[in-house]
Amino acid sequence: MSTIVLETMQLSKTYGRRPVVDAIDIAAYEGEVFGFLGPNGAGKTTTLGMALGLIHPTAGAVQVLGEWVTPGRTRVLRQVGALLGTPALVPHLSARENLDLMARLSPGVDRRRIADVLDQVGLFEAANRKAGAFSTGMKQRVGLALALLNRPRFLILDEPTNGLDPAGMREIRQLIRALVAEGTSVLLSSHLLNEVQQVCDRIAVLNRGKVVAQGRVDDLLRGQSPGVRLRVPALEPAADVLRAIPGVGSITVEDGELVVNGADTQAVLQHLLSHGIVPTELSTSVVDLETLFLSVTA
After folding, report:
1. Going by fewer Cβ within 10 Å, which terminus of the chain is more open, N or C?
2. Are residue 120 and residue 242 in the same domain, yes or no?
């Protein structure tokens, strides 16, 4: 069994009477890319804040690289790199100068690393440009470089491809895989499900503060039945009829079509026809991470 690099044990956070994170148990292992997914407001950022010692848990605990983490106990985080949202950069300093400032403030960081990480994130040629003139995508690259300065054993990335074009997204995917090959474990939180499916080994899906799915991506997808897509003259009446099918999961509307999860094509067609509804188009959709995500967070 691989070493666990991040583990939460009944981790909870409540604000007032509202549970934002509700007794979650997740585990990310050494040598993998672990995807952390969920809709807006699911509790992902709060969970990452507790893992980084920025937020006190209401209950439960979190371990990083085998050590307990709280706001008063963060020594192990010297071995962790993190990019959460858009990085706060000093605008009148260049990318290189921002990295140099962070290196001076971080114990044990070798300033000779700066050139290496600038090259890793594709910023070597723009290293002397002022950060205030950078696009969102360029700022993300600087933030990723900052997260890599300390040669982290464990890297936490929250929306690292924000603002990047498709070529930039591919570069970040390749960088993540290269880092894992070199021994860095990665937690990736992203709304870009196609990106997650391409790069992650295992995932956990959070919804309303609870873990609703966790495991290897391939295993979770094999457990999903293909969705059925159909066009009908009236969407809502058809959706109401289909909800009566035993075992049916989510029913959503995409591009003017109903997408039904949890029922096979034959059951959907027979049920519609028995209620006098004739679909004009009907097909089976591809089972992918988006299908899984919509099914477990519906």
Report:
1. N
2. no
CATH number of the domain bearing residue 256: 3.30.70
Domain with 38, as residue range(s), is 4-218
Query: pTM, whole model, 2 decimals?
Result: 0.81
The Cα 273–Cα 275 span in angstroms is 5
DSSP string, 79-128: GEEEEESS----TTSBHHHHHHHHHHHSTT--TTHHHHHHHHTT-STTTT
Q: Cα–Cα distance between 110 and 147 in angstroms, integer?
A: 13
Last residue of a domain, one of 218, 251, 270: 218
Report how far residue 32's alpha carbon sits from residue 181's, in angstroms, rounded to the nearest whole number: 9
Nearest to 154 by CA among 47, 23, 29, 26: 29
Render pLDDT for 210-247 as a digit per residue (tens, 0 to 9). Answer: 999 999 998 898 777 677 888 988 888 899 988 888 87
Q: Which value, in Å, is the radius of gyration of the alpha carbons in the chain?
A: 22
Let me know: does 265 contact 9? Beta carbons within 8 Å. no
Among 287, 288, 270, smallest CA distance to 279 is for: 270
Residue linked to tokens 């003259």: 233
- 283 and 260 housed in the same domain: yes
Domain total for the chain?
Answer: 2
